[in-house]
Design a protein that fits this description.
Elements: H1 2-14, H2 17-46, E1 49-50, E2 58-59, H3 63-69, H4 72-104, H5 111-114, H6 120-123, H7 126-136, H8 143-150, H9 165-190, H10 194-202, H11 207-235, H12 239-245, H13 251-257, H14 260-269, H15 274-298
Antiparallel strand pairs: 1-2
Keywords: Cell membrane, Membrane, Transmembrane, Transmembrane helix, Transport
GO biological process, one term: transmembrane transport
Transmembrane segments: 21-48, 82-104, 116-136, 164-189, 218-238, 279-298
Length: 306
């Protein structure tokens, strides 16, 4: 009788709605804990140690963070990442606003037939896209340089010159980033009630006035979402830069195109300075966190909901 009573209590407890809810989110919660939270905590701990992955860990305090301040390679990577972000984010915003207005309102007669084309970069893996662009921008046999030579401009060392390599990575980042964000902008434009535009037309507002006073203010929630997500994505850029530069680029080319994530990858998995790599990851996390918090604090001044 005691066992039967215990079974009844167990099934009664399992039948509670709250328990079923916890069971349903348990797989996700366990995955979040194992693959995200615990590695983050372990990385923070490693940042204060010296460890090569095999020998015993040695406590170094804030030595790794002090070392960052004098590391020219890391500071160059930090500067490259900042330049990449400053160039990519505004370029994406400008392009998606222009294309979004054309595609959302069917301004051009052929837009219905080419709508799927702008989605293609999103279907392509960044590594595959970078490999294709690496071939297209090649100095000797790249299609882009062959076209430039046919126009009488001459070949440009897009990938082999420190003056151009970062801008080539920026171009690929813009090409990859437009697709998804364009979908967000088009959805935002189509969600704006037509009545606002009709009332503005009755009042004699021009197309530019309607865009500046109706479309743009009501698109600020979508723009804010894109701004936050794209800034985080830009600070984490790795795959395209790694493919373009290669595994062992010349020193000048490496300094001109390396990013923060490339730097921490090299320190952790090439030189096996796990502690120093974790310190760089911590700095990256703080940079992204501060910028994101700042965006949320200032969004009340320019984002209009409803």
């Amino acid at each position: 009788m005691g066992r039967v009573s215990g079974n009844r209590n167990f099934f009664h407890w399992m039948g509670k709605e709250s328990v079923q809810g916890y069971l349903m989110i348990a797989p996700n919660s366990i995955g979040l804990m194992v693959f995200y939270i615990l590695p983050i905590m372990w990385s923070v701990l490693l940042a204060f140690h010296q460890w090569d992955g095999l020998s015993a860990m040695e406590w170094t305090g804030i030595h790794n963070f002090r070392r960052l301040l004098g590391d020219a390679s890391f500071l160059a990577a930090l500067g490259n990442t900042a330049v990449y972000t400053v160039l990519v984010v505004p370029a994406i915003l400008l392009l998606i606003l222009c294309f979004g207005m054309l595609l959302a309102h069917d301004v051009l007669s052929f837009t219905r037939h080419v709508r799927t084309l702008y989605f293609l970069p999103l279907m392509t893996m960044p590594v595959a896209a970078a490999l294709v662009w690496k071939w297209l921008l090649n100095l000797r046999f790249g299609l882009v340089n062959r076209v430039l030579e046919a126009l009488g401009i001459g070949a440009v060392p897009w990938l082999s010159s420190p003056s151009y390599v970062l801008y080539s990575i920026v171009f690929i980042g813009v090409w990859l980033g437009v697709a998804y964000n364009l979908i967000v902008i088009i959805a935002g434009i189509r969600s704006i009630p037509r009545g606002y535009y009709e009332a503005a037309e009755i009042d004699g507002a021009s197309g530019l006035d309607r865009f500046l006073r109706i479309t743009l203010p009501l698109l600020t929630p979508s723009i804010f979402f894109i701004l936050v997500t794209q800034l985080i994505t830009c600070f984490q850029v790795f795959d395209t830069a790694f493919v373009i530069l290669g595994a062992d680029p010349p020193g000048s080319l490496h300094r001109a195109g390396s990013t923060i994530v490339m730097s921490l990858y090299e320190q952790g998995f090439v030189f096996f300075n796990m502690g120093y790599s974790s310190a760089q990851a911590a700095v990256l996390f703080v940079c992204v966190l501060v910028i994101t918090i700042g965006q949320f604090l200032f969004q009340k001044r320019w984002v209009h909901y409803g």
